[in-house]
Design brief:
single chain, seven-stranded mixed beta sheet, binds nicotinamide-adenine-dinucleotide, 18 strands
Amino acid sequence: QATVQSAVPQPLEGTAAAEIAATVTRLRGAFAAGRTKPIGWRRAQLRQLQRMLVDERPALEKALLADLGKSPVEAHTTEIGFVANEIEHTLRHLSSWLRPRRVPVPLSLAPARARTVREPLGTVLIISPWNYPVNLSLAPLVGALAAGNAAVLKPSELAPATAAVLAELLPRHLDPEAVAVVEGGVPESTALLEQHFDHIFYTGNAQVARVVMAAAVKHLTPLTLELGGKSPAVVEPGVDLAATARRLAWGKFTNAGQTCVAPDYVLAIGDTADTLQRELAAAVTEMFGEDPAASGDYGRIVNERHFDRLTALLDSGTVVTGGGHSREDLYIAPTVLGDVSADSAVMAEEVFGPILPVVRVPDLDAAIAFVNERDKPLALYAFTGSEHTKRRLLTETSSGGVGFGLPVAHLAVPGLPFGGVGESGMGAYHSVASIDTFSHTKSVLDKPLRPDTMRLAYAPVTGFKEKM
Ligand code: NAD
């Protein structure tokens, strides 16, 4: 997987660990007192968060620029505006999502009524990564609050400016009795994971996910794991390769490729590879100019460790475009690699950076086999004019989501749940899926004592006729 922090957690100093324990106890107390349950409280929190995104937009943009060289436009479309839309959509539908659902009662139990009601889980922990540090912290928080929970957020230490801004802003804009931010890295996460939570929502790599899952066992805490993986993009002959290349370049090189659903590699079927590679090079120039380092629209690699990991992958194929890099500036040019073989280094792990390998496959059967020989990806993309191909890919491969004709953007459809399968994660969120994730659905049967129809079921059942 892309990144793992220290495998050996460092012990946390006494006061800090005690402070974390005290914070969780305080939040649990607030939840137990019923503070977060009224729908009015939930709506108020969401509106406050909405206001925060407007009022504090400059501070958030500044932090994202510092952490990832993210342009203000990209910061808005992929992070701040994204969360604002999620809040808007949630506020619009919350009442209907929370409404009890009636369920028919079988004749044998009539007269009676059955329904499901949603109840919040309690105090939840959200651990988020560095690549979309605003979006991936606040979008889960929207769901947690909308469902009526108290929440602790642990932003990533690898996006320190954003973590600091969130730690400063959230307690000021939201109810500090029910929402807390714990800053720090592995020791703080470890201390948090020792606490009792009612749900853990983790976004990051699959190796740390195993640590989180093992910790959840102690309190039998349910969890959502939003992970990554190698998301393939299948390209069939006969499609508009120039348009395909532009869409792939957009999906891949946004945020310098550090996107969990970025197309990780291309499976170019038949004779598509040569033209596609040429068109990819042209698309990169069209988007970022002759020198992408000078483009205000192109981001940077998060740190030296990831920079070194990525530059070591550059000789996995023939450089079609890009390849340039500067450690000082944490810059790696948008790079397309051709003639990549399935067993090269770049194909061994999630790229999670601006390197797009193109692998040639003879036909759709080979593409499907290629995907199925590997872990289930977070997304699968395909560029094809054939409905038959779409149907085959849908039924013969497994992935968290699918995008035909466009990568990444399925995330921006508010009604679509977002989550992985297998190694790319478990559980989902966004829209009503967030309410499902952060609530318990309680089944209720309500039967009047009279008439006492249950007498038919009581022993002695052999006296059935006399009871009538
Ligand atoms: P990261 O290094 O920021 O780690 C994520 C979080 O885990 C951080 O808050 C970190 O402090 C915490 N953490 C690290 N080690 C820990 C440990 N030993 N115990 C407890 N907590 C620990 O981010 P990352 O893992 O590099 O993120 C990149 C990965 O995340 C990629 O695989 C990417 O595909 C995936 N990702 C998935 C999604 C999604 O929504 N499915 C979104 C973004 C990223």
